[in-house]
Amino acid sequence: MRFETLNKYVLKCPRCGFETEASPYIMRCPKCGELLDALLIADKVKLRWNELRGRGVWRYRDLLPEPNSIVSIGEGATPLIRLRSHGNAYIKFEGTNPTGSFKDRGMTIGVSLASSIGVKGVIVASTGNTAASAAAYSARAGLNCIVVLPKGGVAKGKLGQAILHGASIVDIPGTFDNALEYVLDTVLINGSADHINYYPLNSINPWRLEGQKTIAYEVFEEVGVPDYVFVPVGNGGNIYAIWKGFRELMEHGMIDHVPKMIGVQASGAAPMVRYWNGAGEAKIENPRTIASAIRIGKPVNWFRAYRAVKYSGGAFIEVSDDEIIRAQAMLGKEGIGVEPASAASLAGYLKALGEGLIGPSDKAVLIATGHALKDPDALLMGNANMISISSINELRNLVMGNAIA
Ligand SMILES: Cc1ncc(COP(=O)(O)O)c(C=O)c1O
Ligand SMILES: N[C@@H](CCOP(=O)(O)O)C(=O)O
């Protein structure tokens, strides 16, 4: 069956070269099992960069799937904020997306596609943000949504969002890696989801990642090609998507090189760093970190993430939970509220600067993937500037006087 909405794409296996007509359902290579890349066919793309209209993800529709009807809540067009403390570093603040994370860029494409192929609902495994986003977009589309979560492993804000948007919440014992295994074993047969009424929208789905690649397009419009892009890495889809976006700009003659992609992981959950350093497979058991969004031991997109870093000339680095929390507080002092996983990109940037991996004059974009309100417990662990008073006079003294530093 031919899918008109995807007709400017082909699906290709990056490992064995298998190629097939684009389909919303086929996600893994039927020959070797690798995740398939959705590649634009150059002569089917009519890119009119100077005529781009609108804001956000769909501004770049020339380079995206084009479903008949679009399910959108206003995703993308996030601010790029220059750090006061480090003038060559810019925060791409994905926390301003409709559900507070970069996942919305992908869900607008994924849920639009799900809607146009006529499934009953969507299904995801999640550490929380994918669940919140899938729940909101499927509610918008009038589709059911099943979210499979590691019991006790999801921050309250995200769980609350999934509840608010009416998702069916299934929790399982174990980690996110177990949850994803449950979902993939349920929905994929020979790498395809064509037999099932619930459309999988984790990052194995190459169409969802097409939405996330628009981060690269926005960065390009805002500051050109930075020297480095720092990305927190969990399941590994986002760093690949951003690299793919820059690669496509290069393939269409808009730029002549891509930025070096730096994948940042928490040291207790750093399978990509382990693989990068030649210390074993990109897998660890029992990942541990305060940054629950990236508490992932077996990144399903490990090969995609690896290619993004390797072919851009970047690196994978790890940061401790203390460094993450310090970076979160530092951003807080600049008025930018991010959840712990998102602060990993600043923590990684500071580490890379400190170790001389990058220089202070290099232009770096740090992807701040999710909003601070996602994880209120992490915020409440910080040192509060709380002062208890019991009279108006005490407040007057504070305001008039010297009691507040
Ligand atoms: C806030 C946040 N940051 C970073 C990540 C990591 O992204 P990826 O899984 O695409 O590597 C996730 C989810 O995985 C996330 O929710
Ligand atoms: N942090 C993610 C983990 C799942 O990643 P996905 O990109 O495969 O959906 C989440 O928010 O659940």
From TrEMBL:
Record-listed pyridoxal 5'-phosphate binding positions? 129, 234-238, 369
- Name the chemical reaction catalysed here: O-phospho-L-homoserine + H2O = L-threonine + phosphate
- N6-(pyridoxal phosphate)lysine-modified residues are 103
Question: Which residue numbers delimit the Tryptophan synthase beta chain-like PALP domain?
Answer: 72-370
Cofactor(s) needed, names only, are:
pyridoxal 5'-phosphate
Record key words, sorted: Amino-acid biosynthesis, Lyase, Pyridoxal phosphate, Threonine biosynthesis
Copy the pathway line from the protein's UniProt record.
Amino-acid biosynthesis; L-threonine biosynthesis; L-threonine from L-aspartate: step 5/5
| UniProt keyword Nucleotide-binding, yes or no | no
Please give the Gene Ontology molecular function terms for this protein. L-serine ammonia-lyase activity; pyridoxal phosphate binding; threonine deaminase activity; threonine synthase activity
Q: What class of enzyme is it?
A: lyase
Q: What is its EC number?
A: 4.2.3.1
One GO process term, biological-process aspect? L-threonine catabolic process
Q: Which InterPro entries match?
A: Ser/Thr_Dehydratase, Ser/Thr_deHydtase_PyrdxlP-BS, Thr_synthase-like, Thr_Synthase_bac/arc, TrpB-like_PALP, TrpB-like_PALP_sf
Function field: Catalyzes the gamma-elimination of phosphate from L-phosphohomoserine and the beta-addition of water to produce L-threonine.
What NCBIfam families does its record include? thrC (TIGR00260)
Belongs to which family? Belongs to the threonine synthase family.
Name of the protein in question: Threonine synthase
Native species of this protein?
Vulcanisaeta souniana JCM 11219
Q: What is the lineage of its organism?
A: Archaea, Thermoproteota, Thermoprotei, Thermoproteales, Thermoproteaceae
